[in-house]
Amino acid sequence: MGVYSQQTIKAINKKNIYMLINADPGISRIQLANVTNLSKTTVSALVDELIQEGYVTDEGSVESNRQGRKPNSLVVNSEGNCFIVINWRKRILETAIVTSSFEVEYVNETEVKIGENYAAQIEQQIKECIEHRCDSKKILGICLVIPGMIDSEQEEIISMVLTLDEKEKVIQELRTRIREYPLAVFNDTACLAYAENAFGDMKGRNYVYLNMNEGVGAALVYEGNILKGATGMGTQFGHFSVDKNGEKCVCGNRGCLENRIGELALAKIARECHAQEAFQDLATILFKDVGNLAAEGKQEALKMIEVLAADLSYALGNLIAMFNPESVVIGGMGRKLGDIFLQELQKNVKATGFQQFVSKVDIRFTRLKEEALLQGAAKYYMDMHYKFLEDMTDKLFLY
Known about the structure:
- This protein is α/β, with parallel strands linked by helices.
- The chain contains 13 helices and 15 strands.
- The chain has a 6-stranded mixed β-sheet with strand order 5-4-3-6-9-15, with helices on both faces. The chain has a 5-stranded mixed β-sheet with strand order 12-11-10-13-14, with helices on both faces. The chain has a two-stranded antiparallel sheet with strand order 1-2.
- Helix 1 (2-23) crosses helix 3 (40-52), helix 2 (29-36) crosses helix 3 (40-52) and helix 9 (287-295) crosses helix 11 (338-352).
């Protein structure tokens, strides 16, 4: 028991030191000892192990005000270590290499073959990425990001966006195909919310991250931690009902928000607003198309903005009343609706919601770039799941 405890403590300290180096490139052993309250001997031993194992690089001495020997600068070995992140959307598989310093190094998109074996398609992209792009890099983990829930108890994907057969066991099959690497399967909204916390400019620690894409998701962050439900699946904001008499959703509910403000619903909203003519040259109406025409003052697009903002404000007002966040951050392609939409949404929420709560909440678009999802997945996996003193081969992590 004593040996196990020592190993556990060592693992915690080793990862803590690695994450401090990652967060503060150029930090020295002396600075690490001061921050961690570990002895200089312990810090030096752990840093030496990280260097020998290829996780960290010693870049030599740096200028310092200290007398005597100048301290050495430490950085993570982002050239030698990486994550592979697969963003599985309805029509596209986006395959990315994210370095161990969480920079997106490479992205490739391929079309999803609807109805064909999805695990095989994902495996093919992973293998091509490893063979042609990873060179001599060590792959710390493979992250699969999906627009839907992951039932961690049944190891199943529940998605209203992806076209999945009920009998198809993508996670289990993919696990058998890539056993030589750890696999993490994450919800897309959770990854974006974590990226906002890690790389964004959040001033508070209690906020809602709203992900508007083909589907609609929300993550609730309390004291910097993403809240999860009993099975780890969290909230399904897109399936809040905004019209009890509305059309039936594939989830079984009626009048789901996702079917009112998701990007796939825009064609229907255009018909309701008699705005088809404004988009007649487009095969598919996207958020950016509505936002661009609204910015040009087109009345049809402005009417659609009004309808979208009204439906979202109704659901968002209820969520704010339940959770009382400091802020609401809107990400995904929905931010392409632009400032007119945001202003309309802010006005509606503050006019109709629980005044004690909505009058204080800050509603804004994310300031992170689209690659934040890829970075957030890698960062969440590294922070929560990666172990330096364990064999990570064939590990499976679900969220």
